[in-house]
Specification:
Largest sheet: 2 strands, antiparallel
Radius of gyration: 25 Å
Number of strands: 4
Helix content: 40-55%
Distance between the termini: 18 Å
Strand order of the largest sheet: 1-2
Number of domains: 2
Keywords: Membrane, Transmembrane, Transmembrane helix
Length: about 100
């Protein structure tokens, strides 16, 4: 991760060469962003809304899997209903990971 040097005070004589401390970029960043995992995840000012977004993705999939996909298992021969259910679950995992990461 890139680091920024902290500005030296005006009354300082410059100090020793190894005396300067480095400030992480995510700590020096000015703004309303929220940083998690030491700056590896950066959210906007409403970072907590990601949980609501994931819920809005997962809730319809859970309802579909519980009520509709169970009936698809009976309608399609040769276990095609299971493949539909597995495709829906894998697609949901992919989309959820895309939004979270």
């Amino acid at each position: 991760m890139f680091a920024l040097q902290s500005p030296l005070p005006t009354n300082s004589g410059g100090g020793a060469a190894g005396d300067t401390s480095l400030v992480r970029t995510y700590r020096a960043w000015k703004g309303n962003n929220e940083f998690c995992l030491r700056g590896r995840l950066i959210f906007g000012p409403d970072g907590k809304s990601i949980l609501f977004t994931v819920f809005l993705i997962l809730a319809p999939v859970a309802v579909f899997s519980a009520f509709v996909a169970r009936k698809l298992l009976d309608y399609f021969p040769h276990h095609w209903g299971y493949s539909i259910l597995i495709a829906v679950i894998l697609h949901t995992i992919f989309v959820s990971l895309y939004f979270v990461l």
